[in-house]
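the four lines:
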Amino acid sequence: MKVLNCPLFSNIRAEEVKKLYICLRAKEVKFEQGAEICAYDSGKGVLGVVTSGEVVIKKIDPNGNSTILDHIQKNGVFSDVFAFTSTEVNFIGAYASLPTTVVFLDYPSVFKRCENACEYHSTFVENFLKIVIEKSKTLSQRVEILSNKTIREKVLSYASIAVKNSGSLTFTLPMSLTSFAEYLCVDRSAMMRELKKLSSQGVLKTNKRVFTVLDKKYI
Amino acid sequence: MKVLNCPLFSNIRAEEVKKLYICLRAKEVKFEQGAEICAYDSGKGVLGVVTSGEVVIKKIDPNGNSTILDHIQKNGVFSDVFAFTSTEVNFIGAYASLPTTVVFLDYPSVFKRCENACEYHSTFVENFLKIVIEKSKTLSQRVEILSNKTIREKVLSYASIAVKNSGSLTFTLPMSLTSFAEYLCVDRSAMMRELKKLSSQGVLKTNKRVFTVLDKKYI
DNA sequence: TACAAAATGTTGCAAAAACCACAAAAGGTG
DNA sequence: CACCTTTTGTGGTTTTTGCAACATTTTGTA
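prediction for all of em together
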């Protein structure tokens, strides 16, 4: 099993990571593209690290429509412990969107202290905390955006955050417009219509994925 | 300053909590009802523990409309580190909804290790991790609910989770219908109309805050 | 380069939701 | 109890949205 070079193990030397692997009962599993990695409903809690490939978290409703809730890149961490749970209606699961390797860690062991690796274990918990804080910020940002009632407000709310982060009135979407509509939880064509309207009103010009806010007062 | 009896300090004895207070530069501040406690936009990060009273996290838009994003009860923790940030458009801040006492902790110190209290510091970080995980789950649950496009689906999605948690097809809203509409980010009157429709269709009966799902197959 | 697949762009139409205005009921308080 | 405030309940009207269907462009890849 390859020693991980991911934020979860930052500031821990390779030898100590190996000890932690034992402590956390690490198991490496390979998945084909499209394969289901796990359901998000286990009582125990899944904790996975993507060591190659890519993982998407998908919600599947009773009609078979699927929505992508999250993308996890290489060295990213996914877990039903801190995000999303299947319900009676909607199934949520992790899928390999590419040929993917995942290292599974035993979640309960995170909070147990074994005798041999305690020092690094503390660092591990700190790293984990930082990651969950980051996930939490991302989620709360999305709640803020989704809390707007109209597509227009959702787009402008997103733009407001993007402008703040980029420091410029122009920014590029980190995803396709199709995915963007999915992120905003709105119909793509309705969003396109609204983008055109915003453009004609001189509020926000868009060219494919490049967005330019024309006046800060609008956002 | 009263020794805290809150999840952030669980499994830590009173004497050690006092040491941690020093380590984390704890400062106790009292607020009158309605007072602004802090803005959610500081670069450093606010970390507050409610030791008496109640705190609400409010978003205030340019028109002056305010939305309550979160309620923090006694012994609860609030922080802009893991949830919500003000943007150019919307101001977000913490307010005392009752006469309230808050103990502020220095966020950067959470990740620093001082020589005298390290043992308890680890426990503190673990406790903090558990709290952030809990907050994260709450947020992701809300994203799941808000990701539905119609009011009907939002209500049923909420009901699905509530039924799962309560273990019964009947549950009582922990808030007013007015607040519930705000939580779902929909117009209250439109929601009332939809609740009536759900009732007439024999899907979900509601009487004030008491909801009864008539058949599990609907949720 | 040629082909297939994905993404972008556009429109009509029906459905849904927001907005508005108001009435009745419930709850809290002096 | 009387008063005020909040919550609940209702319906009309306008706006917004989702849906479906399609053309065009871009992208990836064999």
